[in-house]
Amino acid sequence: MDIYTVSFFGHREVEMEAEIESRLERLLHDLITRKQYVEFLVGRDGEFDLLAASAIRRAVNQYGCGNTSLILVLPYTKAEYRDNEQSYLDYYDEVEICADSSEVHYKSAIQVRNRSMVDRSDLVVCCIQHKSGGAYRTMQYAEKQGKQVRNLADCQL
Q: Cβ neighbours of residue 19 under 8 Å, at least 6 residues apart?
């Protein structure tokens, strides 16, 4: 089976949320209906991560035909996950703890996890509205790795 992997990154806060969500929904429709199997990798560290996971869930329910997997990739085992493991497993198809980021200082763990996700990805979808921060650095890393990058906020840079 041909697996197409897509990771999602964005700033903690999202400006123009309705427009970003609309662009994301169009992209998800194309991915789900045109690819044999799509693996979506998401975090849970800001507004864009939550917006992406929610949009993916809706798109899978609307267009999906069993050809997707929504995977939450945590940088380390968080107390919130430990305390609510079943609700996470009910929402996401899989929950992974990134091995690389679980072994570094917690302040750098998200960046390490993000780079690990980029390395696995065919496409990086991001919402970068400012030329600073961890999400911006992850987008730069993805570009340096030669990954296909789609910034849903590119008209705002």
A: none
Cα–Cα dist 83/80, whole Å:
5
Model confidence at 156, pLDDT cuts 50, 70, 90, reads: very low
Q: CATH class for domain 3-156? A: alpha beta
Domain boundaries, the chain: 3-156
Q: What is the largest CA-CA distance in the chain?
A: 40
Q: Give the residue among 8, 30, 16 at the shortest CA–CA distance from 153.
A: 16
Amino acid at site 64: G
Give the pLDDT mean for 117-130: 96
Entry pTM? 0.94
Distance CA 76, CA 1 (A): 30
